[in-house]
Amino acid sequence: MFDHVFRSFPEPLLMLDRQGIILDANNNMLGITGISRTSLQGSNFSSLCKNHGDLLRAFGKAAHEVAMVRIRDVQLHLGGQSQLFEQVTFLGLQGDENGVVAVFRPAGSDMEAGFWGKKNLEMGAYGMAAVLSHEVKNPLSGIRGAAQLLATSAAPEDMELCHLITAETDRITRLLDRLNILAEDEGPMRQALNIHEVIDKVLQIYDMSDWPKLEVSRAFDPSLPPVLGHDDSLVQVFLNLVKNAGEAMGDAGNLRIETTYRTGTRIQRGNNSLPNLPIEVRIIDGGPGVPLELSNHLFTPFVGAREGGTGLGLAIVAKLVNQHEGLVDYRRVGDESVFAVRLPRAI
């Protein structure tokens, strides 16, 4: 899986160890450098980039802090000519055998994607997400084991927290497994769900976390019919949106969640008409909103406004909603940010 995704990724990639030795390069990188894979492997990244100070500093930060670091407008002399890159992203990966993935976005490329994304970028980016998911599973198993151990001697009032930790690690593990197939169009099996029960579960998970504490108000339509959905996926969709709102506002922020039924709402996507999407859930916060330069690419993988973020949260939201044949959009209304998710009804 990793070799296939890495070699066919639509942007030039390098895999480096933490000391800056090149472990592998994908086909696009070989094309722009004019150097064979065997010649690149084992060479030093500093030699390839001609000791470019900004690149080396960004690489060092990603390697030592296991972080994502981006720099823009990078000019390098590769393949016998000057190459301009709109953005270079370094992804620090956990694990003894892993170091840093470097993603080079050529200037003037058509790789930018909006909500639905171009197919090759979407598949490649989610393929990289599948690789990253492997790195997350290792600590998850340890967390689950620790929660089970704590449960054997926990006080009665702490048992609920132990069970919640175990249930959440299981849910996240299932979703990480699904990251391996997010590049495919086929979604999970769906059934009739009460969307309000999904949202209540999301808010319970959020309340038990160490994320910013929010004042939440609900404006639910009690007459809503069931949605046609997959429980774990929809929990992840709304948990990502609520978490984003909390991070945008900080402690004591006011979050409003509204549900409504929109009769006859039908969306056109290109030349295709989506199924009727009458059920709408709106996540509304009073945070500062999305920077204008990111608003058109908000749901693109590896694009994000938060320092230290992965840029995958909203991309995963978009993909999961798409698999439900639904729609998610963002708009700024006055001083509020509104994420609206539209879903089909089950019956």
Description:
The protein has 347 residues and is of the alpha+beta class. The protein starts with a helix and ends with a strand. The protein is built from 11 helices and 14 strands. It is globular. The strands form 4 sheets. The chain has a 5-stranded antiparallel sheet with strand order 2-1-5-4-3, with helices on one face. A 5-stranded mixed sheet has the order 7-9-12-14-13. Strands 6-8 form a two-stranded antiparallel ribbon. The chain folds into 3 domains: 2-106, Beta-Lactamase (2-Layer Sandwich), CATH 3.30.450.20; 119-179, no CATH class; 191-343, Histidine kinase-like ATPase, C-terminal domain (Heat Shock Protein 90), CATH 3.30.565.
Layout of strands and helices, then pairs:
Layout (H helix, E strand, L loop, with lengths): L1 H7 L4 E4 L5 E4 L1 H7 L3 H4 L4 H4 L4 H13 L2 E11 L2 E12 L7 E7 L12 H33 L4 H24 L11 E3 L1 H13 L6 E6 L7 E3 L1 H19 L3 E9 L6 E2 L2 E2 L5 E7 L6 H4 L17 H11 L3 E7 L2 E8 L4
Parallel strand pairs: 7-9
Antiparallel strand pairs: 1-2, 1-5, 3-4, 4-5, 6-8, 9-12, 10-11, 12-14, 13-14
Helix pairs in contact: 1-6, 6-7, 8-9, 9-11
